[in-house]
Amino acid sequence: MKKVIFMACAVAFTAAVQAKTMDNAKLTINKNNIKVWTYQNAQNPVFQYKAETSFDVPIEKAVSLILDVENAVNWVPYMGSVKVLSRDDQKGEFSLYMVLDFPFPLKDRDLVVQGKMRKDAQGIISIQNKAVKKGYPINPNYVRLTDYEGDWTFQRLGNQKVKVSTYGYANPEGSIPLSFVNMFVQQQPYQMLQKMKVQLGKSKTATAFPEILK
Hints:
Blueprint: H1 15-21, E1 26-31, E2 34-41, E3 44-55, H2 59-67, E4 79-88, E5 93-100, E6 109-119, E7 125-132, E8 143-144, E9 148-158, E10 161-170, H3 178-202
Parallel strand pairs: 6-8
Antiparallel strand pairs: 1-2, 2-3, 3-10, 4-5, 5-6, 6-7, 7-9, 9-10
């Protein structure tokens, strides 16, 4: 079964970093029931982001969409391809190889991601991801990303309602103007959550959950 968690090019920081930077957050997008905040710190000029929305579907259906790797290229912006390298449902661990289709004339990016999925005592499901330097051969046609962290969280608001949050950060590497990168950081999560809503409307059933998320 080739289904696993991925972190769609929407890259994020951990909850600890989020807590430290929340006071400096700027609400950059607030429309269509989607909010996007951007953050900056003195160590890195590239924006980090938090984006959130809610969907009128069961939490299982929303999480299932993230579990469906084969469908990711249909709704995650700039996602060129995703390959499952490993998955351990008992431990809730996985690894992926992703190619990001950047617009011309920029060179496409690739990365190897290791992730962890878990469910806490309150029933909140989280998916945490981090790029690693090894795990897949270097392809000279791509720029390899190694400075990337991200996560998703899903909180049940009712039998037919779920709050979805995604946090992101990545160093895009290469010679890309900072203004372009930061504009991308603001727009990408908004577009992704919009497309996620469309995909949830198309999906009829939920993927079977890994045991660790039940």
